[in-house]
Write a structure and sequence with these properties.
The protein is an all-alpha fold. Helix content is about 80%, strand content about 0%.
């Protein structure tokens, strides 16, 4: 398994756990409450911050523990990275467009912020799974 593939699995797991954690915190708060009364900023920032620290910390630990020859990137790794970026950028764009429309419609900040955040989370998760599929099977030529 290449270094990039290991990093991808770390990123996939951290993204998936972050998504589930955020939804587990947010959904009970939102049920039956108006959006303007839901406290979402602190959980959003904590989940984002902890995800970044855990992801980068784990990747750093793997990098330091890996043998020197595993740090070489080949063309396949670079192409798979591009596949993941293509998949992820689509969901970031969808989240940004949703936030823009909600902002224009002057919808509560809760919905605008969460459309952006969910777009980022979906982009991270789906990008990671696209790369994992490419590492495990045929991947399209770019």
């Amino acid at each position: 398994m290449s270094r990039d593939e290991v990093y991808n699995w770390i990123f996939a797991l951290v993204s998936l756990v972050s998504t589930i954690t955020y939804l587990a915190i947010l959904v009970p708060r939102k049920i039956g409450a108006p959006a303007s009364e839901v406290s979402y900023v602190a959980p959003l920032l904590w989940v984002f911050g902890c995800g970044m620290v855990v992801g980068f910390g784990t990747a750093l630990a793997v990098r330091l523990a890996a043998p020197k020859d595993s740090k070489v990137r080949d063309e396949r790794d670079k192409e798979i990275e591009l596949i993941g970026q293509y998949v992820g950028s689509g969901f970031v764009t969808i989240g940004a467009m949703a936030a823009l429309v909600l902002s224009i419609l002057e919808v509560d900040h809760f919905w605008v912020s969460n459309s952006l955040f969910v777009g980022f989370l979906f982009a991270a998760v789906l990008s990671s799974f696209a790369k994992a599929a490419a590492y495990r099977g045929e991947y399209p030529e770019i």
